[in-house]
TrEMBL record:
One of its GO terms (molecular function) is Delta24-sterol reductase activity. Residues 1-167 form the FAD-binding PCMH-type domain. Keywords: FAD, Flavoprotein, Membrane, Oxidoreductase, Transmembrane, Transmembrane helix. Its EC number is 1.3.1.72. It is an enzyme of class 1 (oxidoreductase). This is Delta(24)-sterol reductase. It is found in: Membrane. One of its GO terms (biological process) is steroid metabolic process. Gene3D superfamilies: 3.30.465.10. It comes from Aulographum hederae CBS 113979.
């Protein structure tokens, strides 16, 4: 028996043990790219951290057999050896193949290929009773579609076959400046019609300034196109670079050609990693000096999302930051952005068009699409990430307001972030009947449900007990980012395992 089969047999035996004892377990691989605060208890987890290998890359069929705990950067490194790349590579290098499939993940190629789960051909999955089954577009199709986005609540995924496409050395990226949300949407729609465009996303820096970026895969960039990297300490953070480029372009005048750079593939895919899009802005505001260029250089290690996520969780900052990725119909983006500006006033915002399914399976309906996104429909993912109010009740109510607005606009929110829906609201967005049938058919009723997994249980907001001086000082001090953030960075660097509770 090979190492993979042995590891899966071990997991299957453990799952069966939990099943027999009625233990509702969680799936844990050593980290998480979710901002939810997950109660991982040491004795109630299935540890998939050992399943971290790319088993094969088939050059002929253009597929890869990958274990779920393979991260995006490792996946890319391995497939590029065969001159192939995944059609959708999530932009944070630590996101795993299993988490990306079982959660909901998209990127700048998703307008073409759909979200990450659309690029998977088949699965090996351990069901709740410990049996190991396969699911694909043609066998156990309902399980295959149901497992996409239902957060491991139908079983533990132990192997995935990924479709790949031909790689090139560079992504040649063009920067199209825009002056309003409306223009950003119209420009994106126009550019998406060009079949040679492989990648498209946009940053709105304010209500009157933004940039739509389109990418082409190429081995031979257009002459005089500068090569630009983003992964080294001395490289610029991507959004700052984009903002500078369009400012320079604006100075040149309206009619000038869009600015262009050629970016090596890994640098393109993980261009937002350093500084976590613009999340690092907040860290700098609190941590350091006005000399941000120097600070960015010196603190580079801590400004990669892998470390930032650990720091974020270790410091317990989840209840202070508004982190939401929301997909809304294209016709509603302007209204949604206006709403966000009026209610949060937080810029920049990220726009990324996302298709519900892939062109090869346009009729597929997966759990990740909910009841909102029908088949091949195109939506715009709007990413809004900022500091929320310190008062917890206000923080929850602000999140609830965003949920209500998204519901009104017929959108869908990514479930990796905090969610506060009531059960009734949640099951309007996802197909309860289908999900419960599936859970019954595949014996998963004993596992935690997707609702149980993703909903943040509001904590007590009332003042319990006496407000002693110590309590008051503690809450004041801890409530400030420099203190809790630095503590998180310290724990991420030296604190060992803190995501697991006893
Ligand atoms: N660009 C993007 O699209 C971005 C996406 N993300 C989010 O990050 C998440 C992925 O992060 P990552 O750290 O890899 O994953 P996580 O550990 O956060 O897992 C995501 C979900 O998938 C479940 N899961 C994880 N592994 C398996 C498995 N082997 N079998 C079945 N279910 C599994 C987890 O279950 P459990 O709850 O039990 O742990 C969890 O509910 C996605 O949810 C995605 O939405 C974050 C940032 C950006
Ligand atoms: C480490 C600290 C703070 C960190 C935050 C600024 C980041 C922690 C989690 C980050 C994010 C989570 C999920 C995201 C979804 C993606 O689609 C885009 C990026 C992001 C919004 C990302 C943004 C930054 C964080 C909020 C403290 C200790 C200073």
């Amino acid at each position: 028996m090979n190492d993979h089969d042995a590891a899966v047999k071990h997991i299957a035996a453990k799952v069966q043990g939990f099943h027999d004892r009625g233990v509702k377990f969680r799936i844990y691989h050593g980290s998480t790219n979710s901002t939810r605060t997950s109660p991982y208890q040491k004795d109630k987890i299935i540890d998939t951290s050992q399943l971290n290998h790319v088993l094969t890359v088939d050059k002929e069929k253009k597929t890869a057999l990958v274990e779920p705990n393979v991260s995006m950067d490792v996946l890319l490194r391995e497939t590029m050896k065969a001159n192939l790349v995944p059609p959708v590579v999530m932009e944070l290098p630590g996101i795993t193949v299993g988490g990306g499939f079982a959660g909901m993940s998209g990127e700048s190629s998703s307008f073409k290929h759909g979200i990450f789960d659309c690029t998977i051909n088949s699965l090996e999955i351990v069901l709740a009773n410990g049996s190991i089954v396969h699911a694909s577009h043609t066998s156990n199709q309902d399980l295959f579609n149901g497992a996409a986005g239902s957060c491991g609540t139908l079983g533990v995924i132990t192997l995935l076959e990924l479709q790949l496409i031909d790689a090139k050395k560079y992504v040649e990226l063009s920067y199209h400046p825009v002056s309003s949300t409306k223009e950003a949407i119209e420009k994106s729609e126009e550019l998406m019609r060009d079949p040679s465009v492989e990648y498209i996303d946009a940053i709105l820096f304010s209500s009157t300034s933004g940039v739509v970026m389109t990418g082409h895969l190429t081995d031979a960039p257009t002459p005089n196109t500068p090569i630009q990297t983003f992964l080294r300490r001395r490289d610029p953070w991507f959004y700052i670079h984009a903002q500078r480029l369009i400012a320079r372009q604006r100075k040149k005048g309206e009619k000038s050609e869009p600015a262009r750079v050629a970016i090596p593939l890994p640098d393109y895919f993980f261009r937002y990693d350093r500084g976590a899009f613009w999340g690092g802005l907040h860290a700098f505001k609190y941590f350091m000096t006005p000399f941000n260029r120097i600070t960015r250089y010196l603190l580079d290690h801590f400004m990669h999302t892998r470390v930032m996520f650990h720091a974020f969780h270790a410091a317990g900052l989840g209840d202070q930051t508004i982190v939401q990725d929301v997909a809304v119909p294209l016709s509603k983006v302007e209204e949604f952005v206006k709403y966000l500006d009026d209610s949060l006033g937080s810029w920049p915002l990220w726009l990324c068009p996302v298709r519900g399914t892939s062109p090869s399976h346009p009729d597929r309906q997966s759990f990740s699409q909910g009841t909102r996104v029908k088949g091949d429909q195109l939506l715009m993912n709007v990413g809004v990430w900022c500091m929320g109010p310190k008062d917890y009740a206000k923080f929850v109510s602000m999140n609830r307001d965003i949920e209500a607005e998204v519901e009104k606009l017929g959108g869908l929110k990514c479930l990796y972030a905090h969610a506060y829906y009531t059960e009734e609201e949640f099951w309007k967005i996802y197909d309860r009947e289908w999900y419960e049938e599936l859970r019954k058919k595949y014996g998963a009723e004993g596992l935690p449900s997707v609702y149980d997994k993703v909903i943040s249980k509001p904590r007590e907001t009332g003042d319990k007990g006496k407000k002693t001086l110590v309590r008051r000082v503690k809450s004041r001090v801890w409530g400030t980012w420099p203190i809790s953030g630095l503590y998180g960075v310290y724990k991420a660097a030296f604190g060992g395992e803190y995501l697991l509770k006893r």
